[in-house]
Structures are given as C-alpha cells and as structure tokens.
Amino acid sequence: MSQSLPPNEARRVVQGRSASPRQAFTRRSKGPLVALPWALLLLALLPACKLAENYPDETGPRYSGDHRTADAASAEAPSSLTVVTFNLAFAENVTEAITALRRPPLAEADVIAMQEMDATSVDRIARELGLAYVYYPASVQVDGDDFGPALLSRWPLTADRKINLPHDDPYHQQHRIAVVATLDIRGTPVQVVSVHNATPIVGLSGRLDQAETIIDAVDGAEPLQVIAGDFNTSDPGSLKQTVKLFSERGFVWASGGVGDTVDSIIGGLPLDSVFVRGLSPVDRGVDKRPAGSDHHPVWVRFAWPS
User: Fold this and answer.
1) Long-range CB contacts for residues 301-306, cutoff 8 Å, separation at least 24
2) pLDDT one-digit tens code per residue, 45-81
3) Can you tell me the mean pLDDT for 144-169?
4) Which residues lie below 8 Å from residue 98, measured CB to CB, with a gap of 6+?
5) CA of 283: how far to CAs of 74, 85, 241, in Å?
6) Sign of CA dihedral 283, 286, 287, 292
7) 3 state DSSP class of 270
8) CA 243 from chain center: how many Å?
9) Which of 99, 148, 183, 235 is most buried, by the most CB atoms less than 10 A from its CB?
C-alpha cells in the first residue's frame, strides 16, 4: 500500500467535469439525446448554484491505517464471511455508530463498507474496533468536511484504488466515486467495493451507468467479489433495474429481501444493497436499532468456500 496522506496535507482541487448537465439528464440508450422536462427548469438555475469542490485525482487524497491486533493478524481462515454496508450520514454521529458496530450481528463483520465519511471519522472507527482501513474522499461538503466511501477490514488490505464515476450532480456538480480494496483472507483474495451512487437527480440512466462503470472496472479481477453500498434506489423501478443489471453481469443480489434500509419523511426506502460474485449468502438482515444515521446498517453472512 502506498503511504497515506496526513489529513492536514490533503490538497483540495476542483475537478474537471465528467459529464455535462445535459448528458446527466438523458436516457441511457445509445439513441438520440432526450432531456427530461423537469430537468430543463433545473438547468436554468444552475448558473446561480455553488459548485462542489471535488477530488479528480485517481491516486488521492488517500488515507489508510491498520489498527488490528496481533491476534487478529494471525486469525485462522473463517468458516463464514460477514459484510456490512453502512452510510453514516455525513459521519456526524460516530460514537453511536461505533456502539452499533460493536453489537451482534454487526460485531462479526469481516469488512465494513461505509459511505459519507471523512478521514478522522474513518480512523476513529477503525482504531476503536481494531480494523485496517482505506479511505478516498470524493468531494468536500458545504460544511468543509471531506465526503466519500471507505472500507474497513479485520483482514489485511493488500491493494486498493479509487474508481471515478460518471454523471456528476448537475445541480452542484458533486462528484461520486467507489473505493476498491483486496482482502487477504489467509491467502485467499476477496475484492470488495464500497459504493455511493448519485442521488436520483441524475436520473436512473445515470445511476445505472455508474453501477456499470464499477462492474467494468473490477470485471475479471478476482473470483470472489463483493460490491456494497448506497445505490440511491429510491425512485420507482430503480432497485429492480439495478438488480437486473448486476444479475446480467454475473452478480447475485445477496441482500435481497431485507426490506427498507432508510427512514425518510416519505417512508422507508430500499437504498442500500450488497451484490456478490463467487460467494453464497446464508443469512442477511438490516439492523434497525439506533446507529447514528437515517440509513440502517445492512449485513450479509456468506459461506466461506472450502
């Protein structure tokens, strides 16, 4: 792993845009460009909007650390593999999140995919839970904190990278990324991706493009793969289409059937999912006890291949 960047030395830069607002509001087909009517009004307002400050460099800023104990480093191969995905809502309630991640079934996690994180919060969670981690911010929030996905693991992380996603938010042009890391589980590599797709403002076609970009980036890299995170599948039909895309590319919807994962003013929403290739899910669920976020942590336990 490359050396991590100290938080006070991370250099912020404004990203070149990967997709124009007009492109972000078009259908996913290869045919003619078709703008959605409601998008035209939004486009007229764009010049007055404050643009996001993004991190375009594929190599960083990057933060990593290893707070595992000697006992964890020498652990035997598992009989199962537990994956948790958890959007911590701007990383505002870290203490409550740590309490949640310490109780079963989340306490059994081999790897935790987290979203809406900053470097200080990721390091604190990893330190208090005794985990290794890698974190890449995607952009800077209006409060000045970094914002991006992370991966935390009780197994060694042997490689990692950032995947830049297409279709920036057309309102603020906020960028989205995914973070990829390879776990070394007693000699067996498992590739895990932490995802935070854009909100529905980019349209379903844009979010499907983001999901396919991730699949293309990891396709064929490792036989055991997990893609987990917040896919922002709140609009009608978007979850079904996302599951269909992953299924067509050889992934199983491992968290299928867990139900809503987010509390909102319009009711429960199924935003967070886990997809897998090469592993068999044996149990899954949503921990709906208080965890410091409007998102509830989702967990899936897989049988470890013999």
Assistant:
1) 301/80, 301/81, 301/82, 301/105, 301/108, 302/80, 302/81, 302/82, 302/83, 302/254, 302/276, 303/80, 303/279, 304/77, 304/78, 304/79, 304/80, 304/81, 304/185, 305/188, 305/224, 305/278, 305/279
2) 444 567 889 998 999 999 999 999 987 756 677 899 9
3) 97
4) 124, 125, 128, 129
5) 26, 15, 23
6) positive
7) coil
8) 16
9) 148
